[in-house]
């Protein structure tokens, strides 16, 4: 029984870490989007 409980805890920790990394990535990209679009010569009216 103890073995299964340990694996479940490890899976939960891995899922939480994945959600955290994805949310950080989303925050960074959303903040930098205006600069990225401007550097690529796109329309600033969409993200500005």
Helix content: over 70%
How many beta strands in the DSSP annotation? Answer: 0
Task: Characterize the main sheet.
Answer: none
Q: In percent terms, what proportion of residues is strand? A: under 5%
SS-based structural class? mainly alpha
Low-confidence runs: none
Distance between the termini: 55 Å
Q: Write down the secondary-structure element order.
A: H
Mean pLDDT over all positions? 83
The shape, in one word, is: rod-shaped
Rg, please? Answer: 19 Å
Number of helices: 1
GO molecular function, one term: transmembrane transporter activity
Main location: membrane
InterPro entries: MFS_dom, MFS_trans_sf
Membrane topology: Multi-pass membrane protein
Q: How would you sum up this structure, described in words?
A:
There is one protein chain. With 48 residues, this protein is mainly alpha-helical. It has a domain at 23-48. The protein is built from one helix and no strands. It is rod-shaped. The mean pLDDT is 83. Residues 11-48 form the Major facilitator superfamily (MFS) profile domain. Keywords: Membrane, Transmembrane, Transmembrane helix, Transport.
């Amino acid at each position: 029984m103890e073995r299964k409980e340990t694996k479940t805890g490890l899976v939960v920790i891995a899922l939480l870490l994945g959600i955290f990394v994805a949310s950080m990535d989303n925050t960074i990209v959303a903040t930098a989007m205006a600069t990225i679009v401007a550097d690529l010569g796109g329309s600033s009216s969409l993200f500005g």
